[in-house]
Amino acid sequence: MSTIVSSGNKGKGVRSDCFVSVEITQNGGVEIILESKVNVMFGNAIKRLTNEILAFFEISNAKITIEDTGALPFVMAARIEAAIKQLVKTEKDFLLPFLPQNNYHTAKDRNRFSRLYLPGNNPSLMINAGIHKPNGIILDLEDAVACDKKYEASFLVRNALRNLDFYGAERMVRINQVPKGLNDLYFIIPHNVNLVLIPKCESADQIHKVNSRIDEIKTKHNITGNVWLMPIVESASGVIKSYQIATSAKNIVAMAIGLEDYTSDLGTKRTSEGIESLFARSQVVNACRAAEIQPIDSVYSDVADMEGLKKNVLQSKALGFDGMGCIHPRQIKVIHENFTPTPDEIEKAKKIVIAFDEATDRGLGVVSLGTKMIDPPIVKRAVRTIEIAVKTGKLNENWKEKQNAC
Amino acid sequence: MPVNFVKNALQRLVPVKVNGVTQVPYRGVGKYKPTGRKYAPKIASCADFPADGNKTVPTLKDALIRAGLSDGMVISTHHHFRNGDLVSIQIFDIAHELGIKNLVWVPSASFECQAVLIKYLEDGTIHHIEGSMNGSLGRFTSQGKMKGTGILRSHGGRYQAIQDGEIKIDIAVIAAPTADAFGNATGDRGPAACGLLGFALADSQYAGKVIVVTDNLVPFPCIPWQIQGNNVDYVVVVAQVGIPEKIVSGTTEITKSPDRLLLAELTSRFCDEAGIIYDGFSFQAGAGGTALSIGIYFAGILRERGMKARWARGGSNKYLVKMLEDGLVEYILDGQTFDLDGVRSMRENNGHVNTSPFTSYNYHGKGNFASMVDVVILGATEVDVNFNANVVTHSDGTLLHGIGGWQNCIFSKCTILPVPLFRDRIPVIRNEVTTICGPGELIDVIVTERGIAINPLRTDLIEKMKNSKLPIKTIQQLKDEAESICGIPEKPKFTGKPVAIVKWVDGTVIDTIWQLAE
């Protein structure tokens, strides 16, 4: 009696996905039973892809059933491979050609105002994520994936990294908690992930473990580019050790706080005012600034409450955070609008930068604005404000010429 | 008998004769000009009608028998009650009971609630449908199971065809939320209030016999008289004409989908940057979540700048009504009301005007106001690289929708179709559409979440948008992008048998819908 294995999603509300069942048979060749809402347009293409994958894994006798709700090829390939690998032991991976526009690296200090969480086993939410222009897109293998779906999700996330257009967003994956998450790295490091989020991080040791596994994979695949890390501290212990974690490796570019788990660890509840997490948030900001990395705030979970989100963003910014997570594309705009400099801040920064330019032109060592002396850190901050304003379209890049023309 | 076909001006193969009637192939926009006079019904005499004005008869069956219901007749109904219609089905139940065959059903649109009529299409009570074949009726038609060939017309095309005598209606049955015994009728009040009865205007003017069916008989006069009793033969009072909660259209809430909101935002920004939104402009944003959201964006822009629209073309809904009540739009010229706020506003507000396909859409008149609208936002199932668009069939070849007012609306000064680049795995931008419902020369802008394409004929819009930060691309680029994501779809396989034709607004045949091979 042979085993039937499956992978993927079906049922009410499922779109752009497929559910694949595979049974290895003894003879009779390959039998494909296809039930697809795009059968007329893509039935033959689906069968060609299925046959190609079966041949790749050297399977010549199988019964494969595909219930398709319009899955894109990379989704279907992930589903078929995840099913097959439950039956067949193999070192081979079936990979579609890497999308050339996904072949980019990200700078250590790039803007990370928003990072959009996407459940790693839900293709329909992935497909249009990039067009909403978050700074980062996180394919989540951890809490957003049910335990019995983790295995198939790793194939979907791998294929998404290769074949889903991220439209320039930083390509991030949240792995499972270390040590389980170390295995996830095999699915993502060879496929140009820009940044790995390490959840429930409590020690520098966890970071070291992640980095040594990354190095091992990079060596094996001859990869030279950087893979950035963003640990997430989500416990009392993590918060206390946040500085050690933040300074534990050179490729850590940011550290985030996860408030749902943190507040439950404290034995309290998360409130919209956030008094209960004030210490932790300040601690994380402080640790990050000391380590010269970006402090990133938790997500705001009420996706319908844009006013509440705005308040939350302004509070985060005031505490010193550089960005926060989001769980719905509608939150991106609010986060960007409110984390980026206000018109007042831009005006002030412009004056400081101009005063600095004039002082430099005149060879003065001291910058002053009116009767006030301007310290170097303030100039640095003003330059940064201007940079962000230009990058986010709030200020014309030729603002100095315009200023002079007036 | 083999069917003869010719290629029309869009190079689409169309039958020369349909249901025994010779057709004119599509010749181009504004190219076909009919000669002759309008169709006219027989002259009636007051001597044949009761002087006290009481035209009531006991039942619909009585009315149909008195109207002379017999084999091969053309019977018309209307979709004012949408999916809550209770009258159309009764007509054919009665016809079936009387053993009548080969009727032609001319609904102004069909809805899923009428799918039960398939049994009468199967047993020969109904020969074919001229109107729209939605959902199950469309699938039935696509499978080649209808005895005759279906004819799809736009709302304006239906008026034109009745006026020109292409359709000679024998009996029109007008379901009315309120009427008097003389046959005056209105849609803006009564338990099944639906707003207006504009789609029945042509039928009341040109049909051989006109029956008004109501569940709310009021003493003469029924005011307003959207339908004039002077055109009506019989009045029937029934317990219920429509199910109120099914009368309002499905989509009356703005979308929460981030992808559709993005489409709405891109569309509004395009209109704004192209200078389409100005003090005194006019617009039409129909039903559907995306279109409603665009209306909200328009309202925001108008409010912020202290401007107002001179008029908006309805389908009205609570959002458009709010704009009227907030003074952001001076008039709603309404073709149908999509929710109860629309009905209330039409009843109470003099600026909320009921219109008919004659004033808004009829191509064989001395102008119509569809061409005066500054911007109209519509949908499509497919668009090709020449901007030709399809609204009736899906990419798998199945007929599933009617044309509605879509063909008429694309005569506006700027027609914008906000559509997703692909739905699941199905590209919306194609090399060739399955069915052409509207020629590309009338479609100006395609807005997708991944880019906006301006019709090369609109050099003015291209010029205006040349420094825009919006993602302006060519339609070819959009098509390539869709195919790079989805793959290149195969075309559906058809037999050589036409199952329906698509009429253009002037009565010519713009395309053919073919029987599915499987």
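qc> The mean pLDDT of chain B is 95.
qc> done
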